[in-house]
Design a protein that fits this description.
Layout lengths: L25 H5 L6 H14 L2 H6 L3 H7 L1 H16 L2 E9 L4 E8 L6 E10 L2 E7 H15 L8 H29 L2
Antiparallel strand pairs: 1-2, 2-3, 3-4
Helix pairs in contact: 2-5, 4-7, 5-6, 6-7
């Protein structure tokens, strides 16, 4: 049997999907307003699903990859790719955040309740770039644990601590930049 059209996927009352959705397409990305933070987030997830890791890194503020390291960003997204490929992506809200825009995303899968992730977007070099997001935070933590305890379904406390520390490092990048900007502005 040859499939010629996407299999319809529906979302159940509990939030789970009835099957695996198709990966995002260019058409899905282009449904979002051109030049918007919403489109930038959809483009990032599109690239992550299709494995274009250099484009994923380019979606981030350069200070994120410079501080965190490109290998942690690409490693996190490479680790999360199977989850993203079986996720239906839906932008649920956007909100002005002063110097940028916050974009809320829902990732629904057949495996459980939808996951909510948030992206803090800032304009830099004429493009919307990710300043901080919970998707990469989750990815870095899981990737770090998996790297320290490959194939272990019950990783050690040490491996879990390493994952938490890696996620904290990512959270601190944004907080440190904000604090430095406030100190500079008060001078």
């Amino acid at each position: 049997m040859v499939r010629t059209a996407p299999v319809p996927v529906e979302q159940r009352a509990d939030g789970r999907l009835t099957g695996n959705p198709a990966a995002l397409t260019i058409r899905d990305v282009e449904k979002e307003p051109e030049g918007s933070a919403r489109r930038a987030v959809m483009q990032l997830i599109f690239w992550a699903q299709w494995g274009n890791l250099p484009a994923v890194v380019d979606a981030y503020d350069s200070r994120v990859s410079a501080t965190l390291g490109v290998s942690k960003v690409t490693g996190g997204y490479d680790y999360l790719r199977p989850e993203l490929l079986t996720s239906q992506v839906r932008i649920t809200a956007t909100r002005d955040s002063g110097s940028g825009e916050f974009v809320s995303v829902e990732l629904a899968t057949p495996r459980g309740a939808p996951i909510q992730d948030g992206f803090l977007m800032r304009r830099r070099d004429g493009k919307w770039r990710v300043a901080y997001d919970t998707l990469l935070e989750r990815a870095i933590e899981a990737y770090t644990v998996a790297r320290e305890a490959p194939g272990d379904s019950t990783p050690s406390a040490s491996a879990r601590r390493s994952g938490l520390l890696a996620a904290q490092t990512y959270r601190d990048i944004y907080a440190s930049r904000i604090l430095a900007a406030r100190v500079e502005a008060s001078r």
